[in-house]
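User: My collaborator sent over this chain with a note saying "see what the structure looks like." That's all I know about it. Can you take a look?
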Amino acid sequence: MATDQEVWNLMPLHLRQMLTRSRISFDQLTELRIRAGYPIIIKYSGKEYYLDASGRLLPDSGNAYIITREDIRSIVDVISRYSLYAFEEEIRQGYLTVTGGHRIGVAGKVVLEHGQIKTIRNITYLNIRIAHQILGCGRKLHKLLHDNEGYKHTLIISPPGCGKTTLLRDLIRLTSEGDDSCPGVTVGVVDERSEIAACYQGIPQLDVGCRTDVLDGCPKASGMVLLLRSMTPDVIAVDEIGTPEDYEAIRYVLNAGCAIFATVHGISLEEIRNRPVISRMLSERFFERYVILSNRKGIGTIERVLDDQGNACD
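Assistant: Without extra context I'll predict from the sequence alone. Here is the result:
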């Protein structure tokens, strides 16, 4: 399980001490925004706070501690183990994943080579996204996604920040482990942005189940085809679909007799019908279950579960 020390230990000593004194409840921490010349912004318990030099959380930035270039340089040295060159591929993607599955987005001076991003230098902006796992959050939904014929092709529809990846992760774990009503099956995960399993040096930092195989940092479309050919999964799971390549790959998965769990950004079934690629998937009835999320009663609120006819599933 992810802990505060995994994050605090990324910081220079004075920042580590400030964060420790803040007594932040790690379960409620979602993001640390760190920008050279500006206050650190802490997204905590659904609100934004600043931090002063004594470790107090502040509602405004008036007396907040100002991040220095040296602070950021120190953090970058730790997360890259003092060798940015060794992490050039990850930096090119705009983020690194560290122990505990926490993902650190980076921004700064982009270096191009033949019109493509080669790396990012002079990093002066960091976004530390805290990895959380809520074991069991998908248990009730999991029971609606399978019957005697197997797992249903499922699309989770959610606005950003409403827990779709957390829910998908737990569904993967439950499907892989199995329960009294359904034995565990082999699950293949294409984790393009290292957010589902949060692999660090190839090892998932979050629990995705004992029968799960992960392609980390792999483009979704090519990864789905690769998993089918190499690992013969019963279910393939991917996050944030929407490209023409995703359409072709998911069609390939369905034709191979493999179930699909996928997510898409959106607020309703009606809203995502306006997107050409998703609309095509819906009209061709790629999916048998639609799960609509919100944060109306907190992150991960399941508003509705619909079948392919638009009827509510109990």
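A starting point for your reply to your collaborator: The chain has ten helices and 20 strands.
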